[in-house]
Amino acid sequence: MEVGGRFLARIYTRTGDKGETGLVGGARIPKDSLRVDAYGSVDELNSVLGIARSFLNDRELDDLLAELQEDLFVVGSDLASTADHQQRNVPRITSEKIATMERTIDKFEAELSPLKAFILPGGGVVGSLLHNARTVARRAERRIVTLSRSERINEQMLPYMNRLSDLLFVMARVANHRENKGDIEWHAKQ
Fold it and tell me: 2-3 and 20-22: which strand pairing?
């Protein structure tokens, strides 16, 4: 296939037809392995962020989601790499990314009223999609925790994924606030 004057490989390779996939570095593993499940969940999260972006009219939130999508490609490629290959060629999430997310969370929280109750997922379309993204981020984090119990991973990956779900929660609140939708508080029925 030719795209923009460059020749790209075909989308199908037939190398996965027997239930295996290739990692960065060439190793082959089963498609239902913990590693593939982890980076597949990260890929799903990236797709949910793409859907949210398609509804956004807020440049600041859109730019941030675009950056997070780039980060998730880094997380995915890191997860799709063998331990030997990770140390050589693969970009990795760093503690600086985590610190940047924490500053962004603090900035956004200053824009919002303090939480006084649990928040139900919902609000506007973007807020609802960001709440959904938060739940997918939590699932991806759980899959990475499971993987980390049996294989070595980048030590910054778990703090990054944990902070990412916090950021997505705050971004959902900000999106709803900026669209005058407000939070939907949950109160126990007596």
Answer: unpaired
The answer as to whether 16 is a domain residue is no
CA–CA separation, 184 and 176 (whole Å):
10
Beta bridge partners, 118, equal 186
Pairing type for strands 118-120 and 184-186 reads antiparallel
Burial 39-67 (b: 16+ CB within 10 A, else e): bbbbbbbbebbeebbeebebeebbebbee
Please give the DSSP secondary-structure letter assigned to residue 112.
S
Tell me the β-bridge partners of 104. Answer: none
- Structural domains of the chain, count: 1
Cβ-in-10-Å burial (0-12, 13-18, 19+) of 117 comes to exposed
* Domain range enclosing 133: 31-186
Give the tens place of pLDDT for each residue, 25-41.
Answer: 666 665 666 877 798 89
- Per-residue pLDDT, averaged over 107-111, amounts to 96
Is there a domain that residue 21 lies in? no
118 lies in some domain? yes
**Can you give the CATH number for the domain in which 75 is found?**
1.20.1200.10
pTM here?
Answer: 0.85
Does residue 17 lie in a domain region? no
